[in-house]
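Let us begin with a simple case.
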Amino acid sequence: MPRITPRNDAVRELIGLHLYHAGWSNCSMRVRMTLEEKNLQWISHHLNTRIGEHITPEYFGINPNGLVPALVHDGEVWIESCDIIRYLDDLFPEPRLTPSDDKQIAMLTEWLSLASAIHVTAVKTYIYASRLRDKRRKTAEELERYRSLQTNEELLAFHARSSSEDGISEADRARAENLLHDAFAKLDNYLGQHRWLVGDDFTLADITWVPLHFTLERAGFSFARHENVMTWARTIAARPSFQKAVVQWFNGPREDETRIIGGSSN
């Protein structure tokens, strides 16, 4: 569901590229990296998701799942980070981050689809269980407010588990860890023969997966068995887009802010 019709009429008046995002969100990192790689000017609407700034009728009127990021471009709303970065690459093709070869495009799609498929069951579950166990547990009042806005059954079930007295179970955490190792083993095998995840060029596949490495590593996930992934991640960490879009935003601004970021207008 890449492009949606917002219920929040105010965003229809926005001109330019407006990104609603969170500093520590790996999905937001993907979009910020793409914007930086393309030297695009964008307007930041940072949401502190740790204190629930995204759980409001106004934001659910932009993204009906209540997730970050959401991109508003000249009044049109795009959600789901993998769809957003493909949209940006199609609209602003320099530098091109999608391969031209049909076989490689299919491979790119597979990498993006896999990242999306493991987002809640593995990535979100592991991070909440390992790093945010007590920090992100919703109170009864917060859960009620969330349920009044959220219609996504998978997300409702996840937050019910993560906010329960016992939190995410050890069995669920272990299952998430196994899923992550399986996924990164696929990356590691491919990166044993290639510098990047799709052929010989840096693409949206690399932009999609490197924030997962960054955030999971900080949540305590061990990449020791995935040596090629670690080498690949170190290479990307030297890119200016990574430093600006991932490292500098990781903790997010402490104050509420809306500001213009980036290079030339497009």
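The second case is a distinct protein. As before, the sequence precedes its structure tokens.
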Amino acid sequence: MSHFVATLPEPQRAALAAAYDREVAARQRQTLLCVVVFLLALGVAVVGAEVSPITFWTKFGHFTSYFDRLLTLETGGRVWTDPVDWFWGLRRWLRLLGQTLLIAYAGTLSGFAIAFCGCFLASRNLSRFAVMRLIVRRVLELLRTVPDLVFAMLFVVAFGLGPLPGVLALTLHSAGTLGKLFTEVVESISMNPVEGIAATGGGWLARVRFGALPQVMSNFASYTLLRLEINVRGAAVIGFVGAGGIGEDLLIAIRKFYYQDVSAMLVLIVVCVMLLDMISERLRHRLLALGGSQ
């Protein structure tokens, strides 16, 4: 059995090929234009921020040599050749790392509670009072705009050194960030269950509890776990200003050039964050799958 392949006449085929070449050339010009605009924007940003590529190039060796020093013991050997000497303060560092985790956990949980209460008042589909929405949204914006490190410095002045300023700082910043994410989730829900509860005479709390909450809790939990990962890193940093945790010892080691102590604490923080990321990632996927099956 023979098959025949139809071919276009030469003039028509040439016209189609020319049109294709013009389209490819137009896309190439568009890509080139985007690259040029990106490089120009990057150049303007570098000049405006007074970033010197020459300084970066000439001083880059200091950066690499610092990391080389972090991997060297005081005796001159590499850190992995003598783990006992490297992690001589392991018991104290683990205790401080545990305190860092507790600060992050308490700050995340408290921030979740504030964001949970505020997101329903800030959402356009559930809150009918424009003034209430405006106030809650501006408060959440303020909380997430101010860095948690700045909050920590303010609370250290007010309450003194220790974990309390760290918990308060992470609470406020987490409330602002989670509040925005929660509000966006609430505004994307299906309003059919909410309207059905309203049609049966249910009040605002009943509409939130039985109409909106079942649709958003899996996403709320997922975002909260993600925020917990971020707060573990943040809790280590805010310790630099005396807000508790392992950050205080890490800053002292950096200032006194105790290189092997710096690297040991960094290893502990990295391992802790990696384990937390793995656990929370599995929990987030399960929660999202659970929410999608409902």
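The chain is about 80% helix and 0% strand. The domain at 89-293 is CATH 1.10.3720.10 (MetI-like fold).
Keep these points in mind for the review questions at the end of the chapter.
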